[in-house]
Amino acid sequence: MKIKSRDVAFFFLGVFFLITINAVLDWEGTKEAYNEAYRNARFVESPN
Per its UniProt entry, which superkingdom is the organism in (predicted)? Predict the structure, then answer.
């Protein structure tokens, strides 16, 4: 059985769809996690 590019495309489309559905169903948790990560990343200094 050969894996075709169509199979890979459908796999990634399915993963993207599941992540999107999860984000929509748990919108408050997703928004809070994004805001917390943004607040933590804003103050990280560049190594240069």
Answer: Bacteria
DSSP state of 43: T
Nearest by Cα to 13 from 3, 5, 1: 5
Query: Among the residues of 1-48, which ranges form H helices?
Result: 5-25, 27-42
Q: CA geometry: angle at 12 spanning 5 and 8, to 5°?
A: 20
Q: State the pTM of this model.
A: 0.63
Q: What are phi and psi of 25, to 5 degrees?
A: -70, -30
pLDDT, mean of residues 11-38 = 95
**For all residues of the chain together, what is the average pLDDT?**
90
Amino acid at 39: R
**Side chain identity, residue 16:** F
